[in-house]
Amino acid sequence: MSKLQEEIDLRRTFAIVSHPDAGKTTLTEKLLLFGGAIQTAGAVKSNKIKKSATSDFMEIEKQRGISVATSVMGFGYQGLKINILDTPGHKDFAEDTYRTLTAADSVIVVIDVAKGVEAQTEKLVEVCKMRDTPIIVFINKLDRYGKDAFDLLDEVEQKLGINVHPLSWPIGQGDDFQGVYNIYEKGLNLFSSENKQHVSDVVSVNDIESSELDDIVGSDAAGTLREELELIETVYPEYTNEKYLEGKVSPVFFGSALNNFGVQELLDCFVRIAPKPQPKESDIREISPYDEKFSGFVFKIHANMDPKHRDRIAFVKIVSGKFSRNTNYLHVRNNKKLKFSNPTAFMASKKEVVEDSYAGDIVGLYDSGNFKIGDTLTEGEKFMFSGIPSFSPEQFKYIENADPLKTKQLNKGVDQLMDEGVAQLFTKVDNNRKIIGTVGQLQYEVIQYRLEHEYNAKCRYEPINLFKACWFTSENEEQLKDFKLRKLHNLAKDKDGRDVFLADSRYALDLAQEKYTDIEFHFTSEF
Ligand code: G4P
Predict the structure, then answer these.
(1) Which residues have a Cβ under 8 Å from the Cβ of 154 and sit 6 or more positions away?
(2) Is 140 close to ligand 1, i.e. is its CB under 6 Å away?
């Protein structure tokens, strides 16, 4: 095996996602703790935007600033190099999360045992399913009373549309929570009631029928566990790693991240089953991670909020080969050679300059405005990676220049913010008015604030009543022409000049779809 292949095979890059408050930050921290990457709890700053701060964007930006260092956390465990991709929990930053998922080779979904599957989780899993990303489910907060484990698994299967197979199983819940039985390893980890931060005992119970189990957890709990394990065997089809890697079945773990419970099982199983760096589709062929030549793509751009240092960090997922410092690479969209003197890797809670990184890794590149989301870097070959979509936004406002002397600054600012993926810009065909489309309300405040502080430009918003913006294409020239003529006042161009239909209402959209049967309406930017 070549050195390149050896290095690549050691990488495991994954994202942790959840609905806010399910315990993503706590689990991330505990994984780092168990992985030996940090020594004390509390070392990882939360990347989530505190509820109280929703109207205070300064605070948001400060928190975003903190989150740069923790956007990617690398650490070594059992000889592997693990990269955890953190994702913002706040729903208004959902697009950030979707894009981060394009850089993950697998995903861990955290679900609160009491709340079950929540809205944000459904959307995130939907995005994972689009690419058959392997998913592990971690059911958290077993130290509290919540839903029955079987009911919850049914809910997960139904709402998320995935097949599950438990690889660990809880013994009791809330005050009666005794621990988890590790189905994968056939072992039992017991929960110490005196000190919940410690695993009191790890006992191997190779034979679930042995009376030893009754002695340890009591006959009632032992009996229930035996029955439930039997039921699992009959209800859920056999678990295989192949099915997991194909995204066809999701192993489920139970635990309590806060109390360090079930986390070790999760991590140990993760390193055994999680996928190595995966190939990625480009517009010419699928690119294998083992390709000798380097390639990668930008999935996230983080602006420096300090106006004195206007640089940005572009996060690049390395798809193939080896990336080296001070080496010329091709920025395919701009057809321009670039080299990077300070590529940064992210280890646990700090950043450091790296000489070489390999497929699977994430590097941070300092950028003065060359990059936009989705850009491809290669050793010279011309291709673009696909699968980094924008989703059709849900909120819309006209953006107007509030300081006519600063038109240039405003345009530049809007341009760069859109490249970063903060929001999407549409220009109306009939009157050239500009519309900003976002996933959440918060982005409007962020844009206004950043235009003023970073670009010295002022904007104001005006309301527009829109239901949805979607891209459209058709082979049928005649229908296309007719549609464009009749809907002239509802047409716009996106930033790349593509046709967009601005539907006033669901009814208008349904009607258009019914009437123009040869026109395809697209709800993500990749079609
Ligand atoms: P998030 O990143 O998914 O938004 O969730 P986060 O880890 O911040 O956890 C949300 C809340 O749930 C936190 O409490 C956290 O302490 C708690 N939590 C996480 N895991 C468990 C668990 O296993 N059991 C119990 N009982 N609680 C858990 P908080 O009060 O909102 O915040 P904090 O003040 O404790 O940070």
Answers:
(1) none
(2) yes
Q: Give the pLDDT band (50/70/90) at residue 177.
A: confident
Of the candidates 361, 322, 388, which has an alpha carbon nearest to the alpha carbon of residue 12? 361
CB 319 within 8 A of CB 296: yes
Distance (angstroms) between ligand 1 centre and the Cα of 233 equals: 32
The domain 280-378: what is its CATH number?
A: 2.40.30.10
Residue 516 makes CB contacts below 8 A (sequence gap 6+) with: 474, 479, 482, 483
Instruction: Write out pLDDT tens, residues 203-261.
Output: 556 677 888 888 888 899 999 999 999 999 899 988 999 999 999 999 999 999 998 88
Does residue 153 register a pLDDT over 70? Answer: yes
Q: What is the CATH number of domain 395-522?
A: 3.30.70.3280
Ligand 1 atom nearest 27 alpha carbon: 7
> What is the 302 CA–ligand 1 centroid distance (Å)?
26
The ranges assigned to domains in the chain are 10-76+86-273, 280-378, 395-522
Mutate to test the pocket of ligand 1, among 16, 17, 18, 21 (most ligand atoms within 8 A of CB): 21
Pick the CATH number of 10-76+86-273 from 3.30.360.10, 3.40.50.300, 3.30.70.1450, 2.60.40.1120: 3.40.50.300
Specify the pTM. Answer: 0.86
